[in-house]
Amino acid sequence: MKKRIVAMALAATMVASLAACGSSSSGSAETTKAAETTKAAETTAAPAATEAAKETTAAAAEASGDVKSVEGMTIAFIPKVTGNAFFESANKGAQKYAEKWGITVNYTGSPNAAVADEVQVVNQAAASGADGICLSSVDATGLDDALKSATDAGVVVGTWDSDVSTDARTLMVSQGTPEILGKMLVDMGADALTKRGKDIAKDPIKYCWHYSNATVTDQNSWQVAGEKYIKETYPNWENVAPDNYYSEQDAEKAVTVGASVLDAHSDIDLIICNDSTALPGQAKAAQNKGLTKNDVTITGFASPQSMKEYAEADVLEEWGLWDCGVQGAMGCYLTAYIAAGNTVHVGDKINIPEIGEVEVLANDSISEGATTADENNGVVLLPERLTFNKDNVNDYDF
Q1: Which residue of 126, 165, 288, 307 has the fewest C-beta atoms within 10 A of its own C-beta?
Q2: What class is the 178-321 domain?
Q3: Does the model's pTM come out above 0.70?
Q4: Residue from 291, 273, 277, 179 nearest 226 by CA
């Protein structure tokens, strides 16, 4: 009842919050080796003795029934933008698992990938009396005030896919560290270039990046890590657009920007699209110009079914992602887990029914220099990533 009363008060202040937020800134499956995740965990875990003690405590708590059930929790599941195949697939997975866990997941968002829109969705979710909010953020810091207000109102905040400031949420479910994902993007491009007959170690490969915007935490961190990897591994490669191309997660703009890339750099070898809207847009732009994977290499992250037509038309060789349905479900579960009254620390292991055991890592595992609170704060990684091509795309239904 107390949370409902506070929620009503929060709704009354919604307009003021919106005014303060400002405007939007703008072939077989190949899994990444478990060793990568293990390494990330090892570099961020607590000292061995402390970690062992925490594991023992967690196991004892679970065995004695001290772990509080998530059953009955209600979670507002907020995407960056509705109508996008990646986020719709994530919701499908979250709903499937939520039914098994006995929690309610309310998928709510805006068709516009804008800070002001997502702030409004957050405020509405908090005012609705939800126990928790699990969101993918359109901006690294633009939602912080709204999320902290929700926390003050008794609503637990978690993130997945794209993060906010670490003090504005509890746990983040990440698809991988920037190093893992940046390397994966470059490696897919290198593999496709090799299949085209390019000597990636000697040829002066011209490339660029096309994604949503520079303030989206996840995509920007992958680009930075990918650039570092390219400089170390392929010093002969040339970034022909160091300021990058951005299409603001707008499907039509992604095609227009994609065409601009091809018009400005007719001899470009590789375009990396670390965004699930930019990748199909870039592929469509290439297809409109009659280009195939033999003319230009396009790769990046997007759901398999959203790229099927381009793979089958030989517009691109390969691309990647992860099981966004599992990721979305994990975010909702972990948010509900804390909302139910459970407390977690770095190094703790949490058993997610139907998915498996996960470990809480420190925030600096995905963001260099990030601090981690003593409890109910940290990062959980997905266990694997996938690579798709026209030979295996029909093996996946998301």
Answers
A1: 288
A2: alpha beta
A3: yes
A4: 179
